[in-house]
Amino acid sequence: QVQLVESGGGLVQAGGSLRLSCVASGSIFSLGPMRWYRQAPGKQRDLVAHITSGGVKNYVDSVKGRFIISRDNAKKMVYLQMNSLEPEDTAVYYCNADLRGATGWAGYWGQGTQVTVSS
Questions:
Q1: What are residue 73's phi and psi, to 5 degrees?
Q2: Are 76 and 30 in contact (CB under 8 A)?
Q3: According to the model, what pLDDT value does residue 107 have?
């Protein structure tokens, strides 16, 4: 019933930009922290950016100054603006959020969206 869906991935040249979006749907009463993770082939899934319900942001060191996480609670969405992209940013990007539905708080994951950065 409750789900997250990412969009906005694609192929971009090094130095370019992409904007990822994630929307929560279903019967949702509250939105807690929201996050972006990424997973490159053969590697673990790592946290990229985090934003609290109050808008406080944190980033992994490798994307600081290049990526911006934001949220729109009214739209139940979280975004990741990715600038100055590097080939090392190539990965499947996943949205993650703590959401309160009919059964209480739970963590949810999106299906992932592919980001490929060419050299």
A1: -65, -35
A2: no
A3: 97
